[in-house]
Every structure is written in structure tokens, then in C-alpha cells.
Specification:
about 210 residues, alpha/beta, about 45% helix, Resolv_N, DNA binding, SSR_resolvase, DNA-binding
Length: about 210
């Protein structure tokens, strides 16, 4: 698949991807064939969208020329997330290469001037709205947590002498609750600190 000389005029180039080797490409390949795309113009990948190395897509992008159209069953075959898909579609458009989807609820066709183009613009708008909503939700969650007195972010590291004091208390037989009360170190952190080997010159309690 996907090994041929490029004709003088624009052509449709198919792309199909499944996320694992246990999944099958048949449905996507059948849709591309029904759209009139021959096997020699179909590029495939059997890897996760999260995998950077996608040789099939890389070969398609290297082969495509202005006037060509990349055809997929659904637009999500082109990337790991909506932002990546939109960026790729935009970059292809800058090179004069269109993108068409066959089975999305609103079929996408960036080379068209009608509903296919409008559908893509709506998709881009929705992706930008979702990015804004996600940022707003994260900011709201931080504000609520801070108002409740909960710290956001990485835990504060405790001073070495405080950790040494905790180890000393442990060596003297103090419980975790007693050590936490005397040092101010949460029990979850104490488990980690006390599991670490103490420095060789540090006293561990009365012999």
C-alpha cells in the first residue's frame, strides 16, 4: 500500500489507523475502497495515536502534493487529540492539501466551500471552547481547594533536622501518630522518610 509515483493532477490519498495490533483495519479500508481509493494509495498504521512514530502517516505526508486530499473514515484517525488533528489539518491546508472524512456525524471536507467546510470550522470552534472550559475548570478547582485550606501542587519538603528528629523518635519507640504530632510531618510522608536508611552518624535512640 502507498508505494507509487505521483500523478500530475491531485489525487485522493487514504489513511487508516488502529490503536493496537489486535484491532483490525477492515472497516476503514472498506470505507476508503468504497470512496474509490485504490490499495496503492492507502497508507496504514497499527499503533496508538499516542505513539509519536507513525510511519504510515509520515509516508503519506511526505508523498502528498498541493491539490491532493487526505481521506479518512473519521477525523480522529489523524491524531492523539482534537488539537493535534486540527493543527495537522491546518498545516495541510497551508500546503494546499485538503482533508475529507467519510463517516463523521458531519462529514468534513476542508477543500469544499459548503457544509463540509462549515463542519470543520465548527469542529475547530468546539475544540477551542473545550480548551477554555478545561482551563476554567482547573482554575475553579484550585480556588475551591485553596479556600478550603488545601495546598495545590507538590508537597513541601521537610527540613533534614526535622526528619532526623522523626527517626530519633522512632528509634525511641514512638508511634507514627506521636511522631507526626511532635514533628508536624504527615503520616504519609513519615512512611517514606522512615523507610529510607538513616545517615551513618545519626543516633537512633538509646542503645
Amino acid at each position: 500500500m502507498g508505494t507509487h509515483d505521483h500523478p500530475a493532477t491531485g489525487v485522493d490519498l487514504g489513511y487508516a489507523r488502529v490503536s493496537t495490533t489486535k484491532q483490525h483495519l477492515e472497516r476503514q479500508l472498506a470505507a476508503l475502497a468504497q470512496a474509490g481509493i485504490g490499495d496503492d494509495r492507502i497508507y496504514v498504521d497499527k499503533k496508538s495515536g499516542a505513539t509519536v512514530d507513525r510511519p504510515g502517516l509520515a509516508a503519506l505526508l511526505a508523498y502528498a502534493r498541493p491539490g491532493d486530499t487526505v481521506v479518512v473514515q473519521t477525523l480522529d484517525r489523524l491524531g492523539r487529540n482534537m488539537r493535534e488533528v486540527l493543527n495537522l489539518v491546518h498545516d495541510l491546508g497551508e500546503k494546499g492539501i485538503g482533508v475529507r472524512s467519510l463517516a463523521d456525524p458531519l462529514p468534513i471536507d476542508t477543500a469544499a466551500e459548503g457544509m463540509g467546510r462549515i463542519a470543520f470550522l465548527l469542529l475547530a470552534l468546539f475544540a477551542e471552547m473545550e480548551r477554555t472550559f478545561t482551563a476554567e475548570r482547573a482554575a475553579h478547582a484550585r480556588a475551591v481547594a485553596e479556600a478550603a485550606g488545601r495546598r495545590i501542587g507538590r508537597p513541601v519538603a521537610h527540613a533534614d533536622d526535622t526528619i532526623e528528629y522523626a527517626r530519633l523518635l522512632k528509634g525511641q519507640g514512638a508511634s507514627l501518630g506521636q511522631i507526626a504530632a511532635k514533628t508536624g510531618i504527615p503520616k504519609t510522608s513519615l512512611h517514606r522518610y522512615l523507610a529510607e536508611p538513616a545517615p551513618a552518624n545519626m543516633p537512633m535512640g538509646d542503645a
